[in-house]
Design brief:
Layout: E1 11-14, E2 23-24, H1 27-47, H2 55-75, H3 90-95, E3 97-100, H4 104-122, H5 129-144, E4 152-153, H6 171-201, H7 205-229, H8 234-241, H9 260-275, H10 280-286, H11 288-315, H12 331-346
Parallel strand pairs: 1-3, 2-4
Helix pairs in contact: 1-2, 1-5, 2-4, 4-5, 4-6, 5-7, 6-7, 6-9, 7-11, 10-11, 11-12
Amino acid sequence: MFAACPDIPLVVLPADNLVRTSTRPSEPVARALDAAVAGLDRLHAELLNPLGAGAAVKAATDAAVELLDRLAAAAHVDPMDTAPLVPIVPNHTYFGVRTAPLSDAYLTSEVTTVLARTLTDLREARLDLNDQAAEVLAMARILQGLLPADGRPAEPAAPPAGAPYVPGTDELTRWIVTHHFYFVLNLAAADAVNRAVAAFRAADRDAALAAVEEAIVHVRGFTAAMLHSGDMSAACYGATVRPTMAAPACPVALTGRTQPEHKSFRKAMRHLIRVSAEPFAKLAATDPELAAARDALLEADLQDIEKHVVITAKLVGDDRSIVQGEDSESAIAVLRTMRHARAESYRELMRFGDNVTLVGG
């Protein structure tokens, strides 16, 4: 066992990778969900207020934190016995994550807890207002997925025993807690893209547009969550966080490439560009709204890896990644190559496609 923060209770993600429910929660939880969504929407508006930030943002943030805390408490159920659950990859052991089939009530409990912890930390984070807004909007959309309008009523859950865990405020805890939110958003983005793929195949234009627009919110949200998780100095990252991801603290050097939640999103994106392979100009001539939405999703995906380059440059510098050998390129160079390959595959589908071309060395 090499969990980075063993004091944080394990987060159990759904085995089917869906972070939305099919049943309506009990009325107290439904009311708390509605209130939390409204509070997040108000905070999102204040963060993007053209008159600037200030006391209004702080008041809206405090109110949203309180509403999400109330929601997490209302939705909280007793944790399952996680001892029999085997981590899928070493990343799950490190971040304190497991997967299992979850009831809607349990999923709601886990997701609202993850969101509440992240928003509490965001209140103290030094994050760009636009990135804060992206996280907050993604939170609101995730919560809406837990409150299906046409879902059948759920069975009331038994009151939980004991108070929920409250995480600390140090940088390593921020790294773990915010990654939990990042994983949730990756699953939500993958689900939205998969629904877009199905809609494109069925020639259901309206469903495709709605799913792509939902995916954009989640991709921008998980990019912001990545930046949020790295809100620390390079010295702090090098001394406090990075050593926890390699020997001797961790027997297996970790890599994001093996993270199953992000892998599910990458797989969904590969499917999307295969089923929606019409060049931008051709699609825009017949359906400019759908062409613009697909373009925005691909742009968000490129910006995600570009910001990954930026945060790696800030925290790691020109060093190699943990999993690279002595003769390899720097972590930044590897990420840039990945970015260029992605841009090359998206070129014809975007309004302003990147003209970079990878050549053999």
